[in-house]
Amino acid sequence: MIASLSKSGATPAVDSPPKRPRQILHHENYAHEYPPAGSSDTKTVTDDNTLPIIRSLRLLHKDLYCSSEKLLKRDKLGIHAQIEKQSLACLTLAIEAAFRPKSAKQSTLEELRLQVEILKHLIRTEHELGIVPEKTYLRLAEQLVEISKMTNGWLTYATQKEPHGSLM
């Protein structure tokens, strides 16, 4: 702390240290505030050990959750609540599949693929009812297409047979 004389010059005043500027990371409809890089209280924003599909499902759920702020109570507690539950079910299935041995992943991944398709239809219905704006719907649909591609790729990989005559 730095001591300086007050305007009258009679008593010393204690200046508080300057506040650190805070960074605000923006995403389409919401913002997160994080301390600046290099500060002692920096939080880990992303986990590099997380599978891309799990990261994508978490981001999808965050988008769904944050988009519910603008909805009417009827819609928020109705179809949107079901959509949020469905997205959490998809996230749960992806985490389950990640921890299962390769031989046991197929049934979980097939269930995940089914749940992602159901989620796509629910979000499309929500848009058709005029509950979410076009911009939000397009962003969510794009995320779901990527999640669907990842799920199908993972399912294809999990169902591949090991080559019997490999050289190594």
Task: Provide an overview of this structure.
- The chain has 168 residues and is mainly α.
- The chain is 55% helix and 11% strand.
- It has 5 helices and 4 strands; from the N terminus they run ββββααααα.
- It has helices at 52-67, 73-77, 79-99, 105-128, 134-159, and strands spanning 2-5, 12-15, 23-27, 30-34.
- A two-stranded antiparallel sheet has the order 1-2. The protein has a two-stranded antiparallel sheet with strand order 3-4.
- Strand 1 (2-5) and strand 2 form a beta hairpin.
- Helix 1 packs antiparallel against helix 3 (79-99), helix 1 runs antiparallel to helix 5 (134-159) and helix 4 (105-128) runs antiparallel to helix 5.
- The longest helix is centred in the last third of the chain and has 26 residues, at 134-159.
- It is elongated and about 55 Å long.
List unreliable stretches of 5+ residues: 22-46
Shape call: elongated
Number of helices: 5
Order of helices and strands: EEEEHHHHH
Biggest beta sheet attributes: 2 strands, antiparallel
Q: Roughly how much helix do the residues carry, as a percent range?
A: 40-55%
Instruction: State the separation between the terminal residues, measured CA to CA.
Output: 66 Å
Structural class by secondary-structure content: mainly alpha
Beta content comes to 5-15%
Kindly state the mean pLDDT as a whole number? 78
- Determine Rg (CA atoms, Å): 24 Å
Output the strand order for the largest sheet.
1-2
Number of strands: 4
